Amino acid sequence: AIRCHPFVYKEMLAAREPDNEVGLTAFDDVIWKHLGHQLSSAGRALWHNATGALTAHAPRAGRATGLYRKLMRASVNFAVAAEAAMVLLGGNLKRRESISARLGDVLSNLYLLSACLKRYADDGRPDEDWPVLAWCGATTLKAADDALAGVLANLTPRPFAWVLRPFVRPWWGGGHGPTDRESGACADVLLAPSPTRDRLTDGIYIGDENQPAGKLDAALGAVIAADAIQGRLKGKDFTDAKAAHAAGAITTDELATIELAQRLTHSVIMVDDFAPEELSPLWNRQRAGAL
């Protein structure tokens, strides 16, 4: 992390310079650049949080442009918070593992969102994929914001954390997570055969009906195929699909479709079954004694 920072490693090298005059000159040059970088980042964070990141640099990506801007805002917030934690805690940051872990959580979620955006762009930004990307964006930004809140709640000295809060996490700028509508739209895409689902599962081994993933996939397809048929039977006085078939309400093929869905569904939800006494330690001891 130190080597990735644009200034900290150079400052450390300047401080270890055997020639004091050369080291002092180099350190002065780097420290002022570092200070300017921090002030610039703090200003950007304050501005993007105040404006909702409307002016943040982002590629022209249709509906995804807003997510790029929010990612930029969250990245600047993270940069300012990480700098502040490093300055305030120094070497103790390594020992304050809860704070460093929360900073890692922020970075991880920002990385996940950047990966989602890249995948969306690489796939040509298909409209049918948008509900999934919107859900992922809201989820990762919310998780990053929650982790950042944890950093601010535990950062010491406390007065500095209070000063830092308006810059990186003002009360009006926190992530809200996916709405119920966004979650529902994402679920609708993933719970039905679609090009989006095929792209997301490309390369995943599914197997046949004897494999767990293949069994689930087959059951999903069968249930969807039977859903329209069963919908016609709602409100009618049939005890089961066979009764509906006997009454001529559905064809033989439709009956077979419903029975296949029922069989596969039952297979998916089946679990191991044990008699209560088989799980009783007392019963097992008594049985062992009898033998």
How would you summarize what this structure contains?
The chain has 291 residues and is mainly alpha-helical.
Description:
The chain has 291 residues and is mostly helical. The protein folds into two domains: 8-188, Butyryl-CoA Dehydrogenase, subunit A, domain 3, CATH 1.20.140; 205-276. Helices cover 70% and strands 0% of the residues. It is built from 13 helices and no strands. Helix 3 (65-89) packs antiparallel against helix 7 (158-168). It is elongated, with a radius of gyration of 29 Å. The mean pLDDT is 89.
Question: How do the strands and helices of this protein lay out in sequence?
Answer:
Elements: H1 8-15, H2 20-51, H3 65-89, H4 92-95, H5 97-122, H6 130-154, H7 158-168, H8 180-190, H9 195-200, H10 212-233, H11 241-246, H12 252-269, H13 281-290
Q: Which descriptors would you attach to this protein?
A:
291 residues, mainly alpha, Butyryl-CoA Dehydrogenase, subunit A, domain 3
The CATH architecture of the largest domain can be named as Up-down Bundle
SSE string, helix = H, strand = E?
HHHHHHHHHHHHH
Biggest β-sheet: count, sense, barrel?
none
Annotation, overall tally of beta strands: 0
Mean pLDDT: 89
Global morphology: elongated
Assess the beta-strand content as a share of residues. under 5%
